[in-house]
Protein backbone atom coordinates (compact mmCIF):
# COMPACT_ATOMS: atom_id res chain seq x y z
CA UNK A 1 0.00 0.00 0.00
CA UNK A 2 1.27 3.49 -0.89
CA UNK A 3 1.78 6.15 1.73
CA UNK A 4 -0.22 9.36 1.30
CA UNK A 5 1.85 12.10 -0.40
CA UNK A 6 1.91 14.33 2.67
CA UNK A 7 3.38 11.53 4.83
CA UNK A 8 6.03 10.33 2.38
CA UNK A 9 9.66 11.20 3.14
CA UNK A 10 10.77 13.57 0.39
CA UNK A 11 14.34 13.67 1.61
CA UNK A 12 16.19 16.57 3.10
CA UNK A 13 15.20 20.16 2.40
CA UNK A 14 17.30 21.45 -0.52
CA UNK A 15 20.24 23.67 0.38
CA UNK A 16 19.05 26.94 -1.14
CA UNK A 17 22.52 28.45 -1.07
CA UNK A 18 24.11 25.55 -2.94
CA UNK A 19 21.30 25.57 -5.50
CA UNK A 20 21.63 29.34 -5.98
CA UNK A 21 25.42 29.15 -6.30
CA UNK A 22 25.09 26.47 -8.99
CA UNK A 23 22.50 28.53 -10.87
CA UNK A 24 24.74 31.60 -10.77
CA UNK A 25 27.84 29.72 -11.90
CA UNK A 26 25.91 28.00 -14.71
CA UNK A 27 24.51 31.35 -15.88
CA UNK A 28 27.92 33.01 -15.83
CA UNK A 29 29.58 30.21 -17.78
CA UNK A 30 29.99 31.29 -21.37
CA UNK A 31 28.79 34.87 -21.11
CA UNK A 32 28.58 37.73 -18.68
CA UNK A 33 25.19 38.69 -17.29
CA UNK A 34 23.89 41.68 -15.38
CA UNK A 35 23.04 41.44 -11.70
CA UNK A 36 19.40 42.07 -12.60
CA UNK A 37 19.29 39.12 -15.01
CA UNK A 38 20.86 36.82 -12.43
CA UNK A 39 18.49 37.98 -9.69
CA UNK A 40 15.53 37.32 -11.99
CA UNK A 41 16.82 33.83 -12.77
CA UNK A 42 17.19 33.06 -9.04
CA UNK A 43 13.67 34.35 -8.38
CA UNK A 44 12.26 32.13 -11.15
CA UNK A 45 13.93 29.15 -9.46
CA UNK A 46 12.33 30.08 -6.10
CA UNK A 47 15.58 30.94 -4.33
CA UNK A 48 14.74 32.94 -1.19
CA UNK A 49 15.45 36.68 -1.55
CA UNK A 50 17.87 36.80 1.41
CA UNK A 51 19.96 33.94 -0.01
CA UNK A 52 19.90 35.45 -3.51
CA UNK A 53 20.92 38.89 -2.24
CA UNK A 54 23.76 37.52 -0.14
CA UNK A 55 25.16 35.42 -3.00
CA UNK A 56 24.77 38.19 -5.58
CA UNK A 57 26.63 40.57 -3.24
CA UNK A 58 29.40 38.01 -2.74
CA UNK A 59 29.72 37.31 -6.47
CA UNK A 60 29.92 41.06 -7.06
CA UNK A 61 32.58 41.40 -4.34
CA UNK A 62 34.85 38.84 -5.99
CA UNK A 63 34.28 40.30 -9.47
CA UNK A 64 32.14 37.55 -11.00
CA UNK A 65 29.28 40.00 -11.41
CA UNK A 66 30.23 43.43 -12.77
CA UNK A 67 27.48 45.44 -14.45
CA UNK A 68 29.93 47.99 -15.85
CA UNK A 69 32.11 45.32 -17.50
CA UNK A 70 28.95 43.56 -18.70
CA UNK A 71 27.66 46.82 -20.23
CA UNK A 72 30.99 47.50 -21.99
CA UNK A 73 31.08 44.02 -23.43
CA UNK A 74 27.42 44.18 -24.49
CA UNK A 75 27.84 47.57 -26.18
CA UNK A 76 30.99 46.47 -28.01
CA UNK A 77 29.39 43.26 -29.19
CA UNK A 78 26.04 44.72 -30.25
CA UNK A 79 27.57 47.70 -32.00
CA UNK A 80 30.01 45.48 -33.88
CA UNK A 81 27.60 42.68 -34.83
CA UNK A 82 24.26 44.48 -35.16
CA UNK A 83 25.36 48.04 -35.94
CA UNK A 84 23.21 49.52 -33.19
CA UNK A 85 23.39 53.21 -32.30
CA UNK A 86 23.75 54.51 -28.76
CA UNK A 87 20.03 55.07 -28.23
CA UNK A 88 19.20 51.46 -29.16
CA UNK A 89 22.06 50.21 -26.99
CA UNK A 90 20.75 52.30 -24.07
CA UNK A 91 17.34 50.62 -24.42
CA UNK A 92 18.90 47.17 -24.47
CA UNK A 93 21.00 47.92 -21.38
CA UNK A 94 17.89 49.19 -19.59
CA UNK A 95 16.10 45.92 -20.44
CA UNK A 96 19.09 44.01 -19.07
CA UNK A 97 18.76 45.88 -15.77
CA UNK A 98 21.91 48.02 -16.03
CA UNK A 99 21.37 51.23 -14.10
CA UNK A 100 21.12 54.48 -16.07
CA UNK A 101 24.33 56.00 -14.71
CA UNK A 102 26.44 52.98 -15.64
CA UNK A 103 24.81 52.82 -19.08
CA UNK A 104 25.42 56.55 -19.62
CA UNK A 105 29.11 56.20 -18.66
CA UNK A 106 29.65 53.22 -20.95
CA UNK A 107 27.75 54.76 -23.87
CA UNK A 108 29.76 57.99 -23.52
CA UNK A 109 32.81 55.93 -24.52
CA UNK A 110 31.27 55.06 -27.90
CA UNK A 111 33.14 57.05 -30.53
CA UNK A 112 30.75 58.99 -32.81
CA UNK A 113 33.04 58.15 -35.75
CA UNK A 114 32.64 54.42 -35.01
CA UNK A 115 28.90 54.89 -34.79
CA UNK A 116 28.86 56.63 -38.18
CA UNK A 117 31.05 53.90 -39.70
CA UNK A 118 28.62 51.26 -38.42
CA UNK A 119 25.73 53.17 -40.04
CA UNK A 120 27.64 53.38 -43.33
CA UNK A 121 28.40 49.65 -43.25
CA UNK A 122 24.72 48.88 -42.68
CA UNK A 123 23.67 51.12 -45.57
CA UNK A 124 26.26 49.67 -47.96
CA UNK A 125 25.20 46.13 -47.13
CA UNK A 126 21.50 46.86 -47.58
CA UNK A 127 22.09 48.94 -50.70
CA UNK A 128 23.34 45.83 -52.54
CA UNK A 129 19.89 44.27 -52.20
CA UNK A 130 18.16 47.42 -53.46
CA UNK A 131 19.58 47.46 -56.99
CA UNK A 132 16.19 47.18 -58.72
CA UNK A 133 14.48 49.69 -56.42
CA UNK A 134 14.10 53.34 -57.45
CA UNK A 135 16.29 55.85 -55.63
CA UNK A 136 13.50 57.46 -53.59
CA UNK A 137 12.24 54.12 -52.28
CA UNK A 138 15.81 52.98 -51.62
CA UNK A 139 16.53 56.14 -49.62
CA UNK A 140 13.33 55.68 -47.61
CA UNK A 141 14.13 52.03 -46.85
CA UNK A 142 17.71 52.83 -45.88
CA UNK A 143 16.66 55.67 -43.60
CA UNK A 144 14.07 53.37 -42.01
CA UNK A 145 16.73 50.73 -41.43
CA UNK A 146 18.94 53.23 -39.63
CA UNK A 147 16.00 54.57 -37.60
CA UNK A 148 15.19 51.04 -36.39
CA UNK A 149 18.82 50.65 -35.34
CA UNK A 150 18.54 53.82 -33.23
CA UNK A 151 20.31 56.37 -35.42
CA UNK A 152 19.18 59.99 -35.40
CA UNK A 153 17.31 61.31 -38.42
CA UNK A 154 20.09 63.78 -39.23
CA UNK A 155 22.83 61.19 -39.24
CA UNK A 156 20.66 58.71 -41.12
CA UNK A 157 19.84 61.20 -43.87
CA UNK A 158 23.49 62.31 -44.24
CA UNK A 159 24.78 58.73 -44.42
CA UNK A 160 22.07 57.60 -46.85
CA UNK A 161 22.68 60.64 -49.09
CA UNK A 162 26.47 60.06 -49.13
CA UNK A 163 26.22 56.33 -49.73
CA UNK A 164 23.65 56.69 -52.51
CA UNK A 165 25.91 59.25 -54.19
CA UNK A 166 28.92 56.93 -53.80
CA UNK A 167 26.90 54.19 -55.49
CA UNK A 168 26.07 56.52 -58.39
CA UNK A 169 22.46 56.94 -57.33
CA UNK A 170 20.46 60.04 -56.55
CA UNK A 171 19.30 60.93 -53.08
CA UNK A 172 15.87 62.56 -53.04
CA UNK A 173 15.83 66.32 -52.49
CA UNK A 174 15.31 67.45 -48.92
UniProtKB/TrEMBL annotation:
<feature type="domain" description="RecX second three-helical">
    <location>
        <begin position="66"/>
        <end position="107"/>
    </location>
</feature>
<protein>
    <recommendedName>
        <fullName>Regulatory protein RecX</fullName>
    </recommendedName>
</protein>
<comment type="function">
    <text>Modulates RecA activity.</text>
</comment>
<dbReference type="Pfam" id="PF02631">
    <property type="entry name" value="RecX_HTH2"/>
</dbReference>
<dbReference type="GO" id="GO:0006282">
    <property type="term" value="P:regulation of DNA repair"/>
</dbReference>
<dbReference type="InterPro" id="IPR053926">
    <property type="entry name" value="RecX_HTH_1st"/>
</dbReference>
<dbReference type="InterPro" id="IPR036388">
    <property type="entry name" value="WH-like_DNA-bd_sf"/>
</dbReference>
<dbReference type="Pfam" id="PF21981">
    <property type="entry name" value="RecX_HTH3"/>
</dbReference>
<comment type="similarity">
    <text>Belongs to the RecX family.</text>
</comment>
<dbReference type="InterPro" id="IPR053924">
    <property type="entry name" value="RecX_HTH_2nd"/>
</dbReference>
<dbReference type="InterPro" id="IPR003783">
    <property type="entry name" value="Regulatory_RecX"/>
</dbReference>
<dbReference type="Pfam" id="PF21982">
    <property type="entry name" value="RecX_HTH1"/>
</dbReference>
<feature type="domain" description="RecX third three-helical">
    <location>
        <begin position="114"/>
        <end position="160"/>
    </location>
</feature>
<feature type="domain" description="RecX first three-helical">
    <location>
        <begin position="20"/>
        <end position="58"/>
    </location>
</feature>
<dbReference type="InterPro" id="IPR053925">
    <property type="entry name" value="RecX_HTH_3rd"/>
</dbReference>
<keyword id="KW-0963">Cytoplasm</keyword>
<dbReference type="GO" id="GO:0005737">
    <property type="term" value="C:cytoplasm"/>
</dbReference>
